[in-house]
Task: inverse folding
């Protein structure tokens, strides 16, 4: 196979005609295939149907009635289970409702309105505050900072995490940089895990702003595709060792362990940070749904059992990641118009097409019935400077649909590339 | 029985000695009785144990999988059930998580940071904003406004609702008055329901501030103690009729219908207000726990079934309200040192002792093992200008404990009154 840059105009025109014919055939099938969101499939959520098997007794082991008011920061056994999973102490853990995104939003809102532990002034009372945004990244993170009017600075992602030279340089000089979004494990969408060095540098770097905080969205901590899996350093430990115990707020949830719409979430940080924010949250709510916490602890049991459950998830979705790689390889290898990662966990495959071709590729796919995350969504303000990155979310569709969608996407990638080269 | 003001010093001293003896006897029993929060008792929450009976299939009637992501504003059948209950259209209803307090907090936060539908400027960008706070009222409401630094103006409660002459006068003159807390039915703690006239005046009054909003916490809409019950006018209808369709945000929940820690909540307003805030909430979360919504709709079924369930609640707690009235009457009638209401619904009895005696009464009770809501808590800033109001929450303790607690409280009321009179 020749790379496209070695083809002459005639060859490209010819290939374009072939592709257009295939494309039209797909279009005429009136397909409706959705690969836009990182959503577990039905077979995956079925794995947790046992969640409601033990509802006869809704009291904690200490005899607390989960059906009634109380326990702002969650039931003790849930705090302990998460503490064990993340190698923390239970006092560092706050257990919330069904959405860790909501906990992150609430954290930003509290930092903005009232200030967090150790703040001299709320963020909202300071001018032109900024956040560092490793990109490609998670569109919903960027949407939050954008809604709060926080300026976003794009940080390129390298193979071992965000570009730390750039990060350290910026935070050491600019006091208006107040925070940073991180998905440190099987990052959305690049699938890569921050190296120990990157974690240590984030934990220990000098920041001009004393109220600089890291939002550590550890969403995919247990979401391995293979038995031999990535490992992530405990940043809360590292931050404490480095003398920055209050720098990091970690978040996670069972959304992609049990039920995406009905799991439980956690926030973890230093004891002081958690004690401080508990006081603030006590004004916001009497407490989160403890019945769901209790059912989760009973169903998930212990880290070993969770590991087994996650292996079942992997067995369902690994073939989907494989199918994406197989079809993209078959159709595009050697053409020099696309590259993509083969993540060892998480929910996404990050695809880069020729610069200036992502939007067009996604539009072509859409017209042929394949919905992808909008091009650019993985960058702050939806603005991918290279117009090159496309996020593929392979978990939800059945393999057969996924294969069709990837065949179509391959055609669209080629078509957009030829259009671009022909100019 | 003589009123205390007709007793001379000697008689008072004698009575004080008698009371102190009884008080010491109670103290020596080392009791621990909690009447501080409006908390359903175990027998009440047991009424909803059937909630988890139908968990085999977690799909909505339209085939939507409640276990997975999606449906920001809740499942359609939940919206429709609440719409029917409150005589609204489903498009006016947003179904949330387990806490309506959290929805109210979130509303204030959004008004403060971003502004709501129809706002020219967020509240947080305006100076010295104020809220009207009918009092005695709900301490958690006041805690929210206090946290946001919103100045609170106490509005006296009359028999048919807040003092509307004062309310109308203030809002017509002062542009910095941006909102008002209301618990319009079986109000916390007075137990009274706003009259039709009051509702219409609130809906139609002229306000200097265009961004004046009413937080209508309809927490006790179905919480009648008797078959013949209070009725509340639909303020959303009245506000629309009066040309102020966007003035009112209504809140309610199933916290005291099913499970206080595990119910579902709603926010209702004009279609435009709901459409506007849905966009804002879409940044905050992907959605609330829909499994719990589905289980609630299946368990609660329809308004008639809810009425029957609420009748069972009433049968459990009515004897507790009766016991409070019986014991207070027996011990205090005719003494001129206390008056209290006999509510027809809700969760509280509002007790007024002699001016300057509430704090002392609560402290005496505490010392004898009876925990009450702190005196003053029912007023903005915890400041009851008369130091007279005490909130009694009779639902949680068993009747026998409640009777003991009320005997003790009666002694404390008398003791505090005598101390006060003797000076």
Result:
């Amino acid at each position: 196979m020749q790379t496209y840059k070695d083809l002459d105009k005639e060859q490209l025109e010819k290939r374009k005609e072939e592709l257009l014919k295939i494309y039209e055939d797909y279009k005429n099938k009136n397909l409706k295939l959705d690969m836009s969101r990182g959503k577990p499939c039905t077979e995956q959520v079925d794995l947790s149907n046992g969640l409601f098997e033990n509802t006869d007794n809704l009291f904690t082991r200490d005899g607390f009635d989960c059906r009634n008011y109380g326990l702002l920061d969650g039931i003790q056994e849930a705090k302990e289970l998460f503490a064990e999973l993340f190698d923390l102490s239970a006092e560092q853990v706050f257990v919330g409702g069904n959405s860790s995104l909501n906990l992150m939003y609430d954290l930003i809102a509290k930092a903005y309105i009232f200030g967090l532990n150790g703040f001299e002034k709320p963020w909202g009372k300071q001018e032109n505050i900024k956040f560092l945004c490793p990109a490609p990244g998670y569109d919903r993170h960027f949407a939050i900072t954008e809604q709060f009017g926080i300026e976003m600075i794009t940080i390129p992602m390298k193979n071992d995490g965000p570009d730390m030279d750039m990060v350290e340089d910026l935070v050491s000089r600019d006091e208006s940089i107040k925070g940073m979004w991180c998905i440190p494990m099987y990052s959305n969408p690049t699938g890569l895990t921050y190296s120990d060095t990157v974690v240590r540098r984030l934990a220990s770097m000098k920041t001009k702003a004393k109220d600089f905080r890291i939002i550590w969205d550890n969403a995919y901590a247990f979401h391995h595709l293979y038995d031999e899996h990535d490992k992530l350093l405990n940043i809360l430990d590292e931050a404490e060792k480095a003398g920055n115990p209050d720098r990091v707020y970690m978040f996670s949830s069972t959304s992609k362990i049990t039920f995406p719409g009905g799991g439980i979430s956690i926030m973890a940080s230093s004891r002081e940070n958690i004690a401080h924010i508990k006081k603030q949250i006590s004004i916001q709510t009497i407490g989160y749904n403890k019945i769901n916490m209790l059912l989760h602890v009973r169903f998930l049991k212990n880290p070993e059992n969770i590991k087994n459950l996650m292996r079942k998830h992997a067995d369902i979705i690994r073939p989907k990641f494989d199918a994406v790689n197989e079809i993209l390889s078959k159709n595009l290898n050697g053409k020099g118009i696309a590259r993509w990662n083969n993540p060892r966990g998480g929910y996404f495959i990050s695809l880069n097409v020729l610069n200036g071709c992502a939007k067009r590729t996604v539009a072509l796919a859409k017209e042929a019935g394949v919905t992808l995350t909008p091009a650019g969504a993985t960058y702050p303000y939806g603005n991918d400077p290279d117009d090159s990155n496309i996020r593929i979310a392979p978990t939800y569709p059945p393999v057969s649909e996924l294969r069709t969608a990837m065949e179509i996407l391959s055609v669209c990638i080629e078509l957009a590339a030829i259009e671009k080269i022909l100019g």
Notes: Residues 303-332 of chain A form the longest helix (30 residues). Chain A has a mean pLDDT of 97. Chain A touches chain B through 47 residues (CB under 8 Å). The first strand of chain A starts at residue 33 and ends at 35.
